[in-house]
Design brief:
With 238 residues, this protein is an alpha+beta fold. The protein contains six helices and nine strands.
């Protein structure tokens, strides 16, 4: 809902690199963004039993790390299902005691799921949780979890999105309509005023690194869409 602060602001339009490869895979320079995904993050602790790596036979082990390996693959498997726009990641692990000759007894990791709607996110989370319970039972480990982020998806302004789409069509420039899979300023500005985004094609989807690059010709097309779009928004929105 727009706040009092936004009453004197007509719109906010953000231009950003895609940080992904959807545009590049279709060889299209730009996209109009109609929503920003939600993000679910949980701290997970898997507790097994540390023991000597040489003297503990395989059938006697409660290896927390091998359990976590299966758990991570379940995240990947369920998020790779055909037609799914949900992405899941485990990007940080801490192994205890982290020694070459000791079976890992405890693993701490952070688990993230992103999706276009809360329903899609929660469905994947529930499916993954059921798979994790089976792994815990089979491998005789305990799983503890603490959700520390449950950020809701943001639907960007339909009027602004429509004007940007119409502007791209008027310019006879190919474009895609996509959700943003990363959180940007437009998601926060949507609480203040009408908000939308334009993405420009990224090379190899690289971002926040020296390899980040977008071709000048793609930047020019997206910049012209922003320019023409702002003029059309100024004329059409009351």
């Amino acid at each position: 809902m727009m706040t009092e602060m936004g009453k004197n602001k007509k719109a906010f339009i953000e231009l950003h690199i895609e940080q992904g490869q959807r545009l590049e895979s279709e060889n299209i320079s730009m996209a109009v963004i109609n929503r920003v995904v939600g993000t679910y993050r949980s701290k997970v602790r898997v507790i097994g039993q540390s023991n000597h790596s040489g003297t503990t036979m395989m059938e006697h082990r409660k290896d927390a790390l091998t359990a976590v390996a299966e758990m991570i693959l379940e995240v990947e498997r369920h998020c790779q299902e055909s037609g799914s726009s949900v992405v899941g990641t485990v990007g940080k692990l801490t192994v205890f005691p982290n020694a070459a000759n000791i079976i890992p007894g405890q693993i701490d990791f952070i688990y993230e799921v992103r999706g276009e709607t809360d329903e899609k996110i929660q469905h994947k989370v529930n499916v993954i949780q059921r798979a994790w319970k089976e792994i815990a039972s089979k491998r005789k480990v305990d799983i503890q979890q603490q959700v520390f982020l449950d950020q809701q998806p943001v639907v960007l302004d339909e009027d602004i999105v429509h004007i940007l789409q119409s502007t791209a069509q008027m310019m006879e420039e190919p474009f895609m309509t996509l959700p943003s899979m990363a959180i940007h300023d437009a998601a926060h500005m949507a609480m203040i005023t009408k908000s939308a985004m334009v993405f420009v094609k990224s090379i190899d989807g690289k971002s926040h690194c020296p390899e980040e690059y977008s071709l000048p010709k793609d930047i020019e097309k997206a910049g012209n869409l922003i320019l023409q779009g702002i003029m059309n928004i100024d004329r059409e929105l009351t």
